[in-house]
Amino acid sequence: MTAAAIGVTLALAVSGCAPASSSDVVIRIAMGASGDAVDSNFDTLKTQYETKYPDRTVEIIVQEDDVYQTTGLSTLLSSREAPDAYFEWSGPRMRNHVADGDGADISEYLSGDAFDGRFDDGAFTGMDVDGSGIYMVPWTGDVTDIVWYNKTIFSDLGLDVPTTWDEFMDVCAAIKASGVTPIVEGNKDQWTVGNWASHIASRVVGEDVYAETMNGEAPMNSPEMVDAMGYLAEIAREGYINDSVNALPDDEANTQFFLGRAAMIVIGSWLMADAQTDGEGLEFDYFNTPALDGAGDQESVLGISTGFMVNAKSAHIAETMDFLELVASAEGTKLWAQAGLAPMTIDPFDGVDADERTVSLATLMSTAPTVVAPSDSGYDIEVAAAFYDAVANIIGGGNVQDALDTAEKRIAEIR
After folding, report:
1. How high is the mean pLDDT in each 10-residue block of the chain (415 residues)?
2. What is the pTM of this model?
3. 50 partner at 20 to 30 Å CA-CA among 64, 239, 410, 413?
């Protein structure tokens, strides 16, 4: 997607916590783009907030998602005028912001009347720092890798949804033989295939060994990890994925799938939000990564929770929490559910004619016997970067052992 800003001019794209020059209070909320259906809802909440508080102004800063994740947010936070609140994933990224002094403990606000009854205790998992306090207002729960498939292509070829990896490979072979690309991925920023590789690794080596590996406590190039990444190597070797996998941006891969130019795409539950504007008329559904031969839970789900952090350096923490109250309100929850998201409030689909796939994904996440975190959001970030480099090499046709050996050498240097 292209970078966008809602309710703010480009001249205000980097702004922040310092008091406004006028007597009015200005609060600034930063996030990555989540699709027009989602982004426009923040404009709706901005209008509601400014109507309720006439002496306050909200500026919403929306950056292209991959820019936001890599350099955009860090640039905003280090600027002279940083955002008062910003989107983030729970886990290590959140804890790093707290360590840098950019995350406020908002426990007192969350326990107050404004948020009373909006979340159950499980919504705050991964949003604390060693039990010291809560640092995020929960927003959504995302299944971060599922296999979306074109139902028409499957039906025309007489294909059933696969439940094992061997069946999945047979499906890919049949699709390729028909002249259609089986899987399209946009791995330019490495996280799309990296997330899938995280799930495959956990399924093969087991969740505990996966966690140890991604925290740099177990070797990246172990025989078990080589076996795990062999599944991705098989996809590359058989030509079941687009040749441009490491050059294509993720949003362009989404477009290829929506246009029916590939039968499947492996990406998170947020595809539903993009589908509202880009997938009109496409008959599609999803299945979880098929069962592999390994030590992990073969019914596991790869997932992560998201939320909004409040900048500890903000001059307007109370006013910012008033805006985040709207984000978590019953009305706000309906906006997110209607846009294809799975809010983490206690009543995410109450009174909402939500897409059945969105509801199903929320159920998949909440009832999964094991929820595994992606490498880049649940574990050591530098280890994840080395792993994702190796994964990009492998899905591009590189040798598994060589790629993981290189990753292990890189990780050894930072241990």
Report:
1. 35 40 80 90 97 97 89 94 94 91 97 95 89 94 96 98 98 98 97 97 98 96 98 98 97 96 96 88 97 97 96 97 97 93 92 91 92 91 95 98 98 88
2. 0.83
3. 64
